[in-house]
Amino acid sequence: MSKLTNKEKIFILITLLIIAFCTIFYLHKTPTAKITAPSSTDIQKIGEAIKQVESERPPRIGKSPTETEINNSPYIKHIRIALNGYLDGTNTGVEADALDNTGGSDCGLNNFDKTYYQSKFIIFDASDDDYGGVQADIVFTNKPDTIFWTWVYRLGGDGEYVLRGFCANGPTEEKKVEFKSYISELIKNAKYLY
Q1: What is the number of other CB atoms lying within 10 angstroms of the CB of residue 97?
Q2: Helix, strand, or coil here: 174?
Q3: Most distant CA pair in the chain, distance
Q4: Which pTM was predicted?
């Protein structure tokens, strides 16, 4: 058995802290429990620790990925796998948080017309996420009126990929007309459709 690196030890420690936090939070919600939930300062510290560990990991897609690097990324390819899993009812590759509006009123696959997901999409922007995985803004080619933010994460750092977040991310009302002509040109010239 090989020894764990310091980064792996820190990642395991943070994972255990998150599990402990979730357990405490669950017990706090139970009427008989006398345990209080961690303060917002504790949650913020956990978030900062996760960001620190993730910043020390190798890039998943990089700071300035090329179109080819984006196209070849398993994180990006997983978006289509997750959307297909959602459409066929298996939810293969989709976490529960990506289904409903846990991130806000404009979040969750269940909160948008399914005809979006039946369409191919282009990548509008993609980058490594501060909390691990890759975030990508996508636009569906058959209904290019909305930019959707997606977050794909790899469980355990080397496990399976999951769609962890899905939210509407623009354009603003003021930019809709301008966006429509801009995105039409991008779609027309897109090399990669997913």
Answers
A1: 17
A2: helix
A3: 60
A4: 0.72
